[in-house]
Amino acid sequence: MGAALGTGDKKSVNVDLNIVPFIDLMSCLTAFLLVTAVWVNIAQINIAPKGKNRDQTVKEDDRPILSVLVQEDKIWIGATRIAETGFDPIPRTNDPDADWRLFEEKLKGWKTNYFNDRTDIEIAAESNVQHPVKYQDLVSAMDHAIKVGFLDVGLTDPAGLSARPQQ
Question: Do residues 93 and 29 both lie within one domain?
Fold first, then answer.
């Protein structure tokens, strides 16, 4: 990349710039832009914020709300306004695939029995320094909920869940 100086005359200001490297750079940047734009649309997690907000008044709804709380040692599934069910704990074992299969089976039961016409669910993860929850566990819970048919996944903090297990 350089410039070709004209006649060699010291008073000449004519400079011919070689713009081929600039064109190469722009074509590479355009390719990266297109790949990134497609990847951003494919690799996204659609979530809608759900749960109670401390600053807003909660509008009372007579429909039950399905809540999932992911912890390091258990996964809790429960709903509001369904008195006979309570919270259903799924203890975590050394086989994560079995844990998520059981979680999916229980979600199917909830979907069939109580939420057949609904697609909303709220999910939260509760961790602390001694018992951290992996980000992959939260994403797995969301993926399995979508697989069962809960397409409107709401991500909230544990205090914002509509229903919490009494431990």
Answer: no
